[in-house]
């Protein structure tokens, strides 16, 4: 806990709070100002909207510590505010609230609109309020109420404040601090030991929810390529982020793969088994792993098939890679982003296989973490793009 | 839905920020307005040990016109641009883009640098600034480098930022008076993630264009040879010469497999072109 | 058309406060000043917060739950909850299979988000830290994610002790064979998406134990506190008298807050175990991925009609995805079984067959959401009627007019024995058609739009059974059967009026509207009427707020209690005026006779403070009355509405804009027209969500794919137009004042009207959409598919 000092509803406040405490939790739990409501805690619904340095901000995704020195106004602080009083009268007249849960945030946003946009018509009011959800009223009364206040003020010739009174640059609430944050000892959360993976008893068969197929050719005969696929350590080294955690055995390969989607990082630890069919020059690596932190599990399989070309001197490598993801990471919306990651990861894998087969070391000596740097290599991306074959999953089938 | 514990520092100057970011063995994340990182922290999708708040850095909250470009500090907010608190060098284009990002309460804290660093393919600035020909200055303890906007985003949520590096400034060239711009996005509701973005800057008198197709689940496409889109040349009649089939082929080549998605993207791009010509 | 009221107003003029007044709401001021008290706002000494460890998998066997040593005292699993019973919601319908929902998972998890362990700490953040440190060892089982595949032989079983995944199958038939030779026969498959009800406030619980009273108090964001108490008592094995359930201010319900939650049981146990108050509030991710869902229907439906568009019969197989468990008290089969009884809608037809399946899947349980099964049924039937119109070469409106039950047939028992109480359905449709100007739209369509979009007009109509009571619910055989609704009315010594009713208001404005009823009966100024709602210790038993019943039932009960109270006051007043009781009347809050008048305040003063002045034969019950109410028939009121939508479709982007929207509605006598309008507007917004935006998708592993409101889209101000409303007021012949329930109706018809309008716009392209929500992607996909189909094979 560190001291957070700011002004709330014109009262100087100095209260200990963790850096992770949102401004909303700060005013609700530390100051008992419960008029600020939490509706989504990810900045979409608007129920938590408060004024920070005089302009609306989401208190659920603004941390109290980041508002050091700032001037906060919650709905309780607008009790005697003239504009809000006018809005309240209009809200009750137009039946602009039912359950009332969205109302404090709605009034804060409406007040901002009234001040900034004196010429707003119904459409502009609706767009202006689009960051505040109401599940009860259908917005009819809200829009009418706000419109009536705007019109009344226009009729009275009240001047607008197009910038909401803000004259300086940068995030509202920032730059008001006298110091640089909590004491050193509390600055860094101690690193936790990597949580152990949940033991995986068996490697079940599964139907992948996403499958990528791609192919490329190498100037080596199939037998040589097939031998390389038998070298688990070598294959793993081609898979970005993969590492072996025990000496491999085809029946049970113990390992982990670290993936990173922007700031989201996960390490899936688990097992794989290797199946090979020398007669058909094909094989399969199937594995399962979980990331304990995010309670997410992934199952994946790499199927390969080697086809001789150039009268047996060269090989076309046909890869089919499928995966299924479950748990928190799977539930993050916009699966397109996860697919883009998987696609890049798999392209990199194919690229590394190709390099290794061609005698070059994979990009990055050790298990590579897939990140922007390794992909920034334009040449590699260009080659990878050529390999990308069909890509079938239910892309937005549900969207 | 509360974040995992994190440490927090608010450096007073850039070297201190870079030092904090570069502390060995510490997973650190930069926060500016927190409008992208905040939700991910609350959802515990991200659990850094240290948050480095760069909103205390006065040098990142400046905007000035330097010669033929506008230099924006990374911590300038969308609302700063929307409200005209920064000089306009794009004939209103930046203001228009800024005003349509998320919601006002988000724009009051969300920053241009933060949005770019997050590298969300559906975000407005990554497409718009590529069309406007912007460049970024990235800084780390090792020094600084400059990157064209279109080279900055490399994939979904993946930027070219290296460990310990931050976006310091954004450089937007002054748009020639003869240039037209258009910006159109498909959203199912205001403030929602865009499903398709078209951003164009077309200068028919110079015969040049910068055309961007954005929100395709990976890095936006800056069309390498924009003249192809207009039947081989860019002239005053570009609106009439827009060739949807070329745009569709570019999308297909970029891996947008669904015809319906391509159809929407092409339509959005066409609207951006029309808006430029209007 | 404003019908003569069939009741006598106690004060004639109504003073602008009685039945029919657009009275501003009594509850607004505190809510607009941030002084409402929602469950998360409750502050109790020693309160600690709870976070749950939830299943990340849709279907898995629990091999182990590993709790780090340092958190042993803070974490509880099913093994700790000795003596706690699973939640059982059994339907008496024959063939119903029973599911037991353990409050913390035992052995298996059957849905993502199922509770596995409960973690308690001083703050929610710390409780989440503990939850994050608990490790689950799960053996994944095949997930049953598709309700139709779930019915196939060989499907994995959600409940291994069952032989299949069907909670209940029902069959209903009237003479379907007579329809089979009809000249028009249209068959389609129609589906509606799974949705989350998404009140702005989620569920929430604060539990504490009062040693002095030996009583558990559960504050819960709940619609039906008395039912919650019954359910809790069953799960905890406690006498009901030892439990008090209080609903504070509740931030929207819509059905979501109508079931007993495992969390409610868990926290009740925890506070008794730990000896301090505990709190859990549902966050948005929990709401979207772990709580209850609604609305996922599939129809395979055939409509038979004559050439003139008259219906000959409907044959339907409907499947509802009921999720993993049967929810208390509504059960897993209410939705599908309702489908069979209400699919015929407000129409006449001689033949009908409907077979329904309530299917168990590895998803959240479903709950009755605003409009319950009606939104899906209306969608299916009304889309089909438009296809009949195409076949018959008629305007869609004309097909409706030819088939609607006519006013002269009222009251009318339809083919499924629903007793339509009153109304003029064709008139509502005619007004809607005229108002949306179908002919004008047709002319516009012929000319085309300047902006290149395609416009279309769509209509839909429904009638909605509301406030249905004993005879209906005893047939379902679920744990809750409504009987008489009761209210207590008490005059305070200073002449104020306290009303206690067991329903609860979560936006319905009952603090205002029930005060209006009291004013109507007694003439008391509504400012002096205090409502006490939703508290089992303070109010008479009630099944609570659901099924558009509260105004009809609680309004009737308040009227009954006030009538009796007024009568007692009148007799005391007569004594004070030295009159024969028969010679005085109660008017405007006064008892009046030829000698003058005496106010209720004076009468109250006499009862409480000067009992020596009371008549010797005074009713010893005094000025406090509890009375009960049931409509003359308990088969329900039937409000109805015709909706008409004009939309523009952008065929390039797939975007749909609602250009105009008309609702002609008949809710009987309106107690507060402003509040009724608000309910309709709000229902429309949710209906638009169903039509165009809201969908909780799942992948094949049963993973829910929308965890935030950036993925699960709720309509905002720009998505909901201000509709044009027209009221008809046909009083119900069976209820107090002629009121009909209207709370849900607004949400029922919009998906059908909007889809019909979209299909009308796209019909020249040969494109039709039979699935909600109608997203831009689906529109474009359908247009391209049609284009490809027409292109000669390459």
Automatic annotation (TrEMBL), chain A:
- KW Iron-sulfur (keyword) present: yes
Look up the coiled coil feature and give its residue ranges. Answer: none
Q: What is this protein called?
A: Carbon monoxide dehydrogenase
Which residue ranges does the record assign to the 2Fe-2S ferredoxin-type domain?
2-78
Query: Which Pfam families does the entry mention?
Result: COXG (PF06240), Fer2 (PF00111), Fer2_2 (PF01799)
Q: Where is this region: Disordered?
A: 161-202
Work out whether the entry's keyword set contains Transport: no
UniProtKB/TrEMBL annotation, chain B:
Q: Which UniProt keywords apply?
A: FAD, Flavoprotein, Oxidoreductase
Per UniProt, residues of the FAD-binding PCMH-type domain are 1-177
| Protein name as annotated | Carbon monoxide dehydrogenase
Quote the Pfam families the UniProt record gives: FAD_binding_5
Any one GO MF term held by the record is:
oxidoreductase activity
Write out the coiled-coil annotation as residue ranges: none
């Amino acid at each position: 806990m560190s001291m957070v000092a700011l002004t709330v509803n014109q009262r100087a406040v100095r209260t200990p709070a963790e850096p992770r405490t949102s401004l909303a939790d700060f005013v609700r739990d530390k100051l008992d100002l419960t008029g600020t409501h939490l509706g989504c805690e990810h900045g979409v619904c608007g129920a938590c909207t408060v004024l920070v340095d005089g302009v609306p901000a989401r208190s659920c995704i603004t941390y109290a510590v980041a508002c050091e020195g700032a001037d906060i106004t919650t709905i309780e602080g607008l009790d005697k505010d003239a504009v809000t009083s006018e809005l309240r009268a209009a809200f009750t007249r137009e039946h602009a609230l039912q359950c009332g849960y969205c109302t404090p945030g709605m009034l804060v946003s409406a007040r901002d609109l009234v001040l900034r946009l004196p010429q707003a018509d119904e459409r502009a009011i609706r767009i202006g309020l689009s960051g505040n959800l109401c599940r009860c009223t259908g917005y009819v009364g809200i829009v009418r109420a706000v419109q009536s206040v705007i019109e009344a003020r226009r009729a009275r010739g009240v001047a607008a404040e197009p910038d909401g009174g803000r004259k300086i640059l940068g995030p509202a609430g920032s730059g008001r601090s006298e110091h640089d944050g909590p004491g050193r000892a509390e600055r860094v959360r101690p690193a936790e030991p990597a949580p152990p993976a949940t033991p995986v008893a068996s490697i079940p068969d599964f139907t992948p929810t996403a499958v990528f197929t791609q192919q490329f050719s190498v100037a080596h005969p199939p037998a040589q390529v097939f031998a390389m696929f038998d070298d688990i350590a070598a294959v793993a080294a081609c898979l970005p982020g993969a590492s072996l955690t025990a000496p491999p055995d085809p029946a049970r390969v113990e390992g982990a793969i670290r993936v990173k989607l922007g700031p989201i990082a996960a390490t899936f630890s688990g097992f794989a088994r290797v199946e090979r069919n020398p007669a058909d020059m094909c094989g399969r690596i199937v594995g399962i792993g979980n990331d304990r932190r995010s309670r997410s599990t992934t199952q994946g399989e790499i199927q390969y098939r080697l086809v001789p070309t150039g009268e047996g001197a060269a090989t076309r490598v046909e890869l089919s890679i499928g995966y299924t993801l479950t748990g928190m990471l799977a539930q993050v919306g916009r699966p397109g982003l996860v697919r883009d990651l998987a696609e890049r990861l798999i392209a990199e894998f194919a690229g590394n296989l190709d390099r290794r087969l061609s005698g070059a070391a994979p990009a990055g000596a050790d298990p590579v973490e897939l990140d922007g740097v390794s992909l920034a290599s334009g040449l590699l991306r260009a080659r990878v793009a050529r390999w990308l074959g069909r890509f079938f999953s239910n892309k937005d089938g549900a969207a | 839905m509360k974040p995992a514990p994190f440490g927090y520092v608010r450096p007073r100057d850039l070297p201190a920020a870079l030092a904090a970011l570069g502390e060995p063995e510490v997973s650190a994340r930069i926060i500016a307005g927190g409008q992208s990182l905040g939700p991910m922290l609350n959802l515990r999708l991200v659990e850094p040990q240290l948050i480095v708040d760069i909103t205390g850095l006065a040098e990142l909250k400046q905007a000035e016109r330097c010669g033929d470009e506008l230099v924006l500090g990374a911590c300038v907010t969308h609302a700063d641009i929307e409200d005209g608190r920064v000089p306009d060098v794009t004939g209103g284009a930046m203001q228009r883009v800024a005003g349509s990002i998320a919601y006002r309460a988000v724009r009051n804290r969300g920053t241009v640098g933060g949005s770019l660093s997050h590298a969300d393919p559906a975000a407005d600035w990554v497409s718009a600034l590529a069309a406007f020909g912007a460049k970024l200055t990235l800084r780390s303890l090792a020094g600084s480098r400059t990157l064209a906007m279109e080279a900055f985003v490399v994939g979904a949520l993946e930027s070219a930022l290296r460990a310990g590096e931050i976006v310091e400034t954004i450089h937007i060239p002054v748009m020639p008076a003869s240039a037209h711009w258009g910006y159109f996005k498909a959203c199912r509701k205001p403030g929602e993630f865009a499903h398709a973005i078209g951003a164009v800057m077309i200068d028919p008198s110079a015969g040049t264009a910068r055309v961007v197709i954005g929100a395709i689940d990976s890095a936006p496409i800056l069309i390498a040879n924009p003249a192809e889109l207009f039947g081989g040349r860019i002239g005053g009649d570009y609106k009439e010469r827009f060739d949807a089939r070329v745009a569709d082929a570019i999308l297909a080549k970029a891996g947008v497999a669904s015809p319906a998605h391509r159809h929407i993207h092409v339509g959005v791009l066409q609207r951006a072109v029309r808006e430029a010509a209007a | 058309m404003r019908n003569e009221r069939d009741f006598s107003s106690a004060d004639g003029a109504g003073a602008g406060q009685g039945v029919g007044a657009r009275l501003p709401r009594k509850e607004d001021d505190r809510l607009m000043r941030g002084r409402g008290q929602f469950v998360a706002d409750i502050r109790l000494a020693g309160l600690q917060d709870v976070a749950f460890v939830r299943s990340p998998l849709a279907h898995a066997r629990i091999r182990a739950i590993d709790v780090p040593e340092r958190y042993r005292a803070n974490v509880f699993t099913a093994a700790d909850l000795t003596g706690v019973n699973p939640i059982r919601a059994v339907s008496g319908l024959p063939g119903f299979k029973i599911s037991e929902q353990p409050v913390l998972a035992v052995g298996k998890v059957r849905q993502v988000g199922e509770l596995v362990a409960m973690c308690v700490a001083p703050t929610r953040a710390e409780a989440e830290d503990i939850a994050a440190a608990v490790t689950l060892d799960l053996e994944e089982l095949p997930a049953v994610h598709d309700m139709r595949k779930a019915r196939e032989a060989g499907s994995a079983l959600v409940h291994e002790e069952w032989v299949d995944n069907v909670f209940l199958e029902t069959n209903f038939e009237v003479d379907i064979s007579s329809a089979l030779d009809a000249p028009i026969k249209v068959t389609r498959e129609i589906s509606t998406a799974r949705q989350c009800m998404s009140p702005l406030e989620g569920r929430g619980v604060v539990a504490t134990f009062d040693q002095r009273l030996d009583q558990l108090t559960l504050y819960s964001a709940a619609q039906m506190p008395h039912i919650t108490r019954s359910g809790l008592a069953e799960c905890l094995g406690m006498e009901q008298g030892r439990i008090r359930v209080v609903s504070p201010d509740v931030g929207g319900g819509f059905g979501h807050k109508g079931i007993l939650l495992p969390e409610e049981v868990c926290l009740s146990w925890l506070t008794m175990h730990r000896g301090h108050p505990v709190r859990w509030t549902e966050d948005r991710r929990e709401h979207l991925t772990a709580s209850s869902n609604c609305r996922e229907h599939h129809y395979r439906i055939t409509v038979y009609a004559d050439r003139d568009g008259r219906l000959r019969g409907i044959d339907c197989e409907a499947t509802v995805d009921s999720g993993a468990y049967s929810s208390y008290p509504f059960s897993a089969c209410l939705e599908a079984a309702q489908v069979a009884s209400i699919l015929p809608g407000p129409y006449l037809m001689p033949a009908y067959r409907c077979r329904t399946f309530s299917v168990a899947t590895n998803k959240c349980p479903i709950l009755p959401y605003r409009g319950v099964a009606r939104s899906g049924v209306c969608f299916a039937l009304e889309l089909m009627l438009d296809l009949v119109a195409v076949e018959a070469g008629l305007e869609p409106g004309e097909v409706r007019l030819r088939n609607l039950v006519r006013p002269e047939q009222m009251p009318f028992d339809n083919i499924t024995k629903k007793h339509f109480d009153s109304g003029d359905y064709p008139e509502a449709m005619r007004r809607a058609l005229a108002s949306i100007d179908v002919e004008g739209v047709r002319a516009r369509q012929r000319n085309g739009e300047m902006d290149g979009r395609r416009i279309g007009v769509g209509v839909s109509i429904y009638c909605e059974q509301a406030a249905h009571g004993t005879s209906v619910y005893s047939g379902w055989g679920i744990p809750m059967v409504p009987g008489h609704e009761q209210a207590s009315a008490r005059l305070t010594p200073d002449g104020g009026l306290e009303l206690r009713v067991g329903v609860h208001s979560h936006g319905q404005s009952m603090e205002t509207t029930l005060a209006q009823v009291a004013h109507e009966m007694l003439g008391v100024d509504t400012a002096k009427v205090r409502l006490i709602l939703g508290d089992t210790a303070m109010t008479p038993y009630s099944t609570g707020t659901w099924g558009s019943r509260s105004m009809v039932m609680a309004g009737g009960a308040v009227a009954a209690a006030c009538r009796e109270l007024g009568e007692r006051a009148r007799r005391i007043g007569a004594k004070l005026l030295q009159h024969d009781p028969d010679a005085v009347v109660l008017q405007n809050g006064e008892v009046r006779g030829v000698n003058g008048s005496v106010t209720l305040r004076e009468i109250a003063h006499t009862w409480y403070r000067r009992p020596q002045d009371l008549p010797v034969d005074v009713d010893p019950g005094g000025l406090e009355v509890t009375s009960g109410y049931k409509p003359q028939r308990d088969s329900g009121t039937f409000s109805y509405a015709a909706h008409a939508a004009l939309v523009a479709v952008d065929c390039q982007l797939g975007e749909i804009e609602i250009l105009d929207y008309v609702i002609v509605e008949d809710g009987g006598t309106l107690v507060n027209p402003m509040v009724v309008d608000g309910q309709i507007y709000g229902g429309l917004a949710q209906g638009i969500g169903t039509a165009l935006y809201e969908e909780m998708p799942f992948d094949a592993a049963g993973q829910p794919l929308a965890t935030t409101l950036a993925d699960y889209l709720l309509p905002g101000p720009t998505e909901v137009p201000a509709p044009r409303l027209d009221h008809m007021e046909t009083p119900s012949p069976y209820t107090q004042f002629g009121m009909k329930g209207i709370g849900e109706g607004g949400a029922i018809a919009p998906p059908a009207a909007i889809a019909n309008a979209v299909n009308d716009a796209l019909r020249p392209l040969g494109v039709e959409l039979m699935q909600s929500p109608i997203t831009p992607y689906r529109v474009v996909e359908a247009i391209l598919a049609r284009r490809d189909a027409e292109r000669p094979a390459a």
